[in-house]
Amino acid sequence: MSESLIETEALDARPEGIARAAELLRAGALVAFPTETVYGLGADARNGAAVAGIYATKGRPSFNPLIAHVADVAAARELVEWNDMAEAMAAAHWPGPLTLVLPLRSGHGVSPLVTAGLATLAVRVPAKACARALLKAVGGPVAAPSANPSGRISPTTAAHVRAGLGGKIAAILDDGPCAVGVESTILGLAGAEPVLLRPGGLAAEEIAAVLGCPVAERDASDPLSAPGQLLSHYAPQAAVRLNATDLRPGEVFLGFGAGVFDLNLSERGDLREAAANLFGHLHALDALRRPIAVAPVPEVGLGVAINDRLRRAAAPR
Ligand code: TXA
Ligand code: MG
Hints:
This protein is α/β, with parallel strands linked by helices. The protein folds into two domains: about 10-215, DHBP synthase, CATH 3.90.870; about 240-315, Rossmann fold. It contains ten helices and 15 strands. The strands form two sheets. Strands 1-8-2-3-7-4-6-5-9-10-11 form an eleven-stranded mixed β-sheet, sandwiched between helices. Strands 12-15-13-14 form a four-stranded parallel β-sheet, covered by helices on one side. A hairpin with a 6-residue loop joins strand 2 and strand 3. Helix 1 (about 15-25) packs across helix 6 (about 130-140). The radius of gyration is 19 Å and the shape is globular. Threonylcarbamoyladenylate binds next to strand 5 and strand 6.
C-alpha cells in the first residue's frame, strides 16, 4: 500500500506563490489552497486524471461528488443552468461560504468524476481574495474537497494540511487560518423548491431571508439529494462524546461559553468564533490521544453547522 512521497512545495499568498500554484494546477497537479471556510485540495476540474488524484489522495469514496470553485458569477454561469433563485443568492452571498447545486450546462467541460456522474454540479465563488486570485490565474474551474484524508478533521491552517497530506500533493498555498472555519452551506436549486443539502458557514435563516420562502431540509433517506454525506466524518482518532456537562476520567473537555475547559470554542458564547475555532481545537485535542467530551452548543444559526460536524465526529465508525 505504501506510495512514494513527493516534496510538497510551501507557497505563500504573494503573486509569485499564486502564479506557481496556478501553474501546477494547470499542469494537472494537486494543490491545497485556502478559502474562508476550510483549506481545499484543488485539481483542474476539466482534467479527469487530476480529479482522480483527489479521490486517490484523500482515500475518498468515489460516489462523493466535488464542488467546482470559480472566480466569479460569470464563470459559474458557463458551467450550470442559471435561474432566478441562483441569481438572488449569488447577488446576496457570493463571494462567500455558499455552494449552489444546479443542472449542468451542455459544453461545461467538467470531468464526470467531479459530479460522480450526476446531472447537477455544485459551484461556489469563495470569498478569500487569495483563492479568487488563484482561480482567476488558473482560468477555469477547480474541483476541491476539504484538504484532509477522507473522514478526518477538516483543515483550517496550512499546518493541518501538511500533517494530513504532506508528501502526497504538489504544493500548499498558505494564507493563514480560515476565518469561517466550517465548510460552505450547500443549497440545492436544481428543482422547483430550494433544498438545504448541508448546513454550513451561511446560516439557513439568511437563505430564507433572500429567497423569501422557507428552505426545505434535505430528505436524509434519499441518497441522491446529498450524496456522500457520510455519517461518520470529521472524525478525530479519539472517541468524541457530545453535550457533556461533566468530565469523565481520562477525557479532555472542549467547551463553549463560561466554564473550566481544556480548550474553549468561544468563551463569550459566540457561534461565529466557535465555528472558526472548531476544527483547529479538534486537531489540537486529538493530538493528546484522549477521549474528547464536548459541551453543548446551541442549535441555532451557525450552531446548526457546528453541531452537524460534531455529530459526525462522534458517530460510530
Ligand atoms: O467550504 C467548502 O465547501 C469546502 C471548501 C474547500 O470550498 N469544500 C468542501 O467540499 O467542503 P467537500 O468535498 O468536503 O464537500 C462537498 C459536498 C459533498 O459531500 C456532496 O454532498 C456535495 O458537496 N455535493 C457536491 N456535488 C453535489 C451535487 N451535484 N448534488 C448534491 N450534492 C453535491
Ligand atoms: Mg470534507
